[in-house]
Amino acid sequence: MASQGPPGMGQVMVLNSKTQRTHGRQAQIGNISAARAVADIIRSTLGPRSMLKMLLDPMGGIVITNDGNCILREVDVSHPTAKSMIELSRAQDEEVGDGTTSVIILAGEMLINAEPFVRTNVHPTIIVRGYNYALQEALSICEKLALTVDIHDTDRMKALVQSCIGTKFSSRWNDIMIDMALKAVLTVARDTPTPSALPGGSEDMYSQKVEVDIKRYAKVEKIPGGEISDCAVLSGVMFNKDVTHSKMRRRIENPRILLLDTPLEYKKGESQTNVEITDEEDWNTLLKMEEDYVENMCMEIIAFKPDIVITEKGVSDLAQHYFAKANITAFRRLRKTDNNRVARATGATIVSRTDEIRESDIGTGCGLFEMRKIGEEYFAFFDECKDPKACTIILRGGSKDVLNEIERNLSDAMQVVRNVVFDTRLLPGGGATEMAVSMGLRKAGLKLEGVQQGPFLAVGEAMEVIPRTLAQNCGVSVIRTVTQLRAKHGAAYEEAEKLHGEGAFPKCNWGIDGTTGKLVDMEEFGIWEPFSVKIQTIKTAVESACMILRIDDIVSGSKKRGY
Predict the structure, then answer these.
(1) Dist. CA 74–CA 107, nearest whole Å
(2) What is the pTM of this model?
(3) Quick one: which of 18, 287, 310, 343 has the most CB atoms within 10 Å?
């Protein structure tokens, strides 16, 4: 970069000559083009008629999916703005788990609608101010549209999960997937103490009354082979381990379960240990001491009469012998995460030392323990648990690709149910909320004055991209469908103003049926989406558009290391 020096002097070089720099309007328009390109990649994956994308990774692996976050995670981009757009999808996935495609399409459209203002030299801060006003207005419209639901109302919850899964690859097996998602989430949901009950606690948005930890306690076990209709959610847990000794029992009803994270073998030295023996008898004494140590541990365990002993560490041959004699089934080297799930499901406590075992540590919540062979592998099933707060989801399917895609779809569905457990409000799907927000912003924008009115109305226009894309993916006439939908929402406003006077807000739930492309009332059609997902989508899209618009300089070229 060169800048003009004092009069009579030449140019002064400030930046390294290899550094590339774009600034001003050129940088902003470049950013908008990058955002448009990212949005176009996944535009066709929105809605029930969505297309799949096949991605090849550098190792030659294949990913086939229509999950926005998964596609963008695999795509290798070099433009910095495109990278920040891809981060949006990841943030959306981590926060609410659904709406990853919508957020990118919406953010892209917000930036595309800002392009005319940038080209006519409207200052970015004015556009950003208009966008922020529009965001507040959009959120208040969503609040008015929201409907509260009872999470135990199975039909309404099924319709809600249907709207999430209906756009996915697994939509052919919707009924199974919906039941699995609902059962898994309601199994792992448990009440936590309210903030007022905690010492020094204060009510805030992060103190939830319910804890739903899907990641830790709802384990998905993918087993290739079988039918997709064989998928199930267990009333308990299972893991891929066989019993340590062939003589141990393989089926126990109402077992007493003991969980350990200590090795049931003689202690090994942390580092290399050398022992010098002067007497021949001392060698036998050493071996005897090791055996006594293991026997003592086993006797402390056997005293509590458990039926199953599971440890995260090793079990020596001698310990296996004692357990087999006492008719106890033993498992070794179980993962910590699996052990935690067994503890939650059976009511056992993980014990670290055998001399500290108490009766209360024994888990008695499991109804049936059974070893089953699926394919070539043996699996231990702990089923029919009384009120398990952990579960295993078994997925069966033809190939690894199918299983991976079903796992992604099921994960989205479980996140949607989890969101509703936290926030029981819903919004109409099928582009109805977006069109209602768009109409509301149009009405509110007419009352605004000055330069901000343009950007404010542009957000309203950008919201229409969701119904427009839904119509486009169905293959119907986009202009006719969106115009009819706009007319429906406009008529609802006029009717509400006639009945209740100026400023009345109508609850218009008309949207697009993503399968046929016809206009339907979402209340009758039964497509609802969680309030938190929609709000998060709108917030993330507007805020990221504002951030990208305020970039007016892109400098590339890194420093040499060591300076």
Answers:
(1) 20
(2) 0.74
(3) 310
